[in-house]
Design brief:
This protein has seven helices and ten strands. The chain is of the alpha+beta class.
């Protein structure tokens, strides 16, 4: 039986929460469960509008999908959200330039199906912490081609520039991952408001040192805020083998 807990926090510096999270332990269309984290961008209210509409559009698309393949379900849902965001941005000047990251997951027995666009992340945390998704960001591209080392990337002035987002272009290209989970693994989905404030090893230690998912999530948010809380912080924790 799946156990989950989710939390979103405005952080210490922002006036508005542009993150949007969704969890369903029940089936959504042909998926047995669905978890989504989105981190919106855009002036005034455009960012929170983008993340909310993207998630709502994805859920609607999934509920009505005849597809059986989870990657295809995620792909079509993200593509439809991209179309909707692009259309609404073109119709309303206040929404121009809006976009959002998305990381989506569905747990199917021992296997986790994952899709992402942008720099919101999914980790698997056990005795070690593994980042499953790859950031679509300027600094990650630099790290990948060997022009920047991982440590310098954390404090790079361009680290907030993302290279892919829902709503950024007419065509969106998600990445897809399938992960085999081991007993005791915990899945963490989060926005960069967490990962910019905490090192991966700090995240692992907080999760391993707390009693349950609720305490783990609360301690993660508290630690991110204690380290500056410069952005909205959103966390979904999934315990697949409970």
């Amino acid at each position: 039986m799946l156990k989950t807990f989710s939390i979103t926090d405005i952080g210490r510096k922002r006036n508005i929460n542009q993150d949007y999270i969704y969890t369903s332990e029940e089936p959504v269309g042909n998926l047995p469960n669905v978890f989504i984290v989105a981190d919106g961008m855009g002036g005034h209210n455009a960012g929170d509008y983008a993340s909310k509409v993207t998630v709502e559009t994805m859920i609607h698309e999934m509920e009505n999908s005849f597809e059986k393949n989870p990657s295809l379900i995620f792909r079509k849902a993200i593509e439809e959200a991209n179309t909707v965001i692009r259309k609404r941005a073109s119709e309303d000047k206040k929404l121009e330039g809006m976009g959002t990251t998305v990381v989506a997951a569905s747990c199917m027995g021992r296997f986790l199906q994952v899709a992402n666009v942008g720099d919101s992340r999914l980790y698997v945390v056990g005795s070690k912490i593994r980042q499953i998704t790859r950031d679509h960001s300027y600094v990650e591209e630099m790290v990948r081609i060997g022009e920047l080392d991982r440590e310098d990337a954390r404090n790079h002035p361009k680290k907030n520039i993302i290279t892919r987002a829902v709503g950024a272009e007419d065509h969106v290209e998600p990445d897809f991952f399938t992960v085999e989970l081991q007993e005791g693994d915990i899945v963490l989905m989060c926005t960069d408001g967490l990962t910019n404030m905490l090192e991966d090893e700090e995240i692992r230690m907080i999760i391993s040192g707390a009693r349950d998912l609720v305490e783990q999530a609360q301690h993660l948010v508290e630690a991110a805020n204690a380290n500056g809380g410069k952005d909205n912080i959103s966390v979904i924790l999934i315990e697949p083998c409970a």
